Amino acid sequence: MEIMEIAEMLGEAIKNDERMTKLNECKNAYDSDVELVRYMMEYEVQQKAMSNEYEKPEKNMELIADIQRRVDELYKLITENPVFNALDAAQAEVNALMNEVNQTITRAITGEEPCTHDCSTCGGCH
Q1: How far, in Å, CA of 1 to CA of 9, rounded?
Q2: Residue 7 pLDDT level (bands cut at 50, 70, 90)
Q3: Helices in the chain by DSSP H: which ranges?
Q4: How confident is the model at residue 114 (pLDDT cuts 50, 70, 90)?
Q5: What is the pLDDT of residue 55?
Q6: Max Cα–Cα distance, the chain, nearest Å
Q7: Which DSSP letter does residue 87 get?
Q8: How far apart are alpha carbons 42 and 26 in whole angstroms?
Q9: Which burial class, exposed, middle or buried, applies to 87 when counting CB atoms under 10 A from its CB (0-12, 13-18, 19+)?
Q10: Which of 44, 42, 40, 15 is nearest to 30 (CA)?
Q11: Predicted confidence (pLDDT) at residue 35 exceeds the cutoff of 60
C-alpha cells in the first residue's frame, strides 16, 4: 500500500471520529448563533479601532478607554456563551487527537517518543 493511500485512510478515519463529528456540530451551532457571530464581528472591529487609535500620533485616551470597555463587555459575552464554550472544547479535543496522531507517526518513524516538553512524560530533555 502506498503512503498516500494510507494517509487517505487515516484522513477518513479522523473525519469519521466522534470528536471530529462533534466539532462539526459545534461549528454549525456557532455559525447559526446570530448573536454570537455578531459579538465576534464587533469584537474584531473594536480591536481594530483600538489598534488604529493607538497608532495615531495624537492618541485619544478617552476614546481608547471607551473602546476597551466595549471590548471587555464583548469578551465576557463571548466567553460566557455556551455555544462558544462547546466549540472551544470540541476544538481542543480535535487538537489533542491530532497531536496524538502526529506523536504516533513520529514514534513509528524514529522509534523514540517525541518530546512533549513535559518532562513528566519521559526521562527529561537531553
Answers
A1: 11
A2: very high
A3: 3-16, 18-32, 34-55, 61-79, 82-110
A4: confident
A5: 95
A6: 65
A7: H
A8: 21
A9: buried
A10: 40
A11: yes
C-alpha cell at 7: 494517509
- Burial of 26 per CB tally in 10 Å (0-12, 13-18, 19+): buried
Give backbone dihedrals phi and psi of 36, rounded to 5 degrees, phi first: -65, -45
Question: Is a pLDDT exceeding 90 seen at residue 72?
Answer: yes
Q: What's the CA gap between 17 and 90, in Å, rounded?
A: 12
- Sequence-distant (≥ 6) Cβ neighbours of residue 31 within 8 angstroms: 37
**C-alpha span between 75 and 68 (Å, rounded):** 10
Reported as a pLDDT band with limits 50, 70 and 90, residue 116 is: low
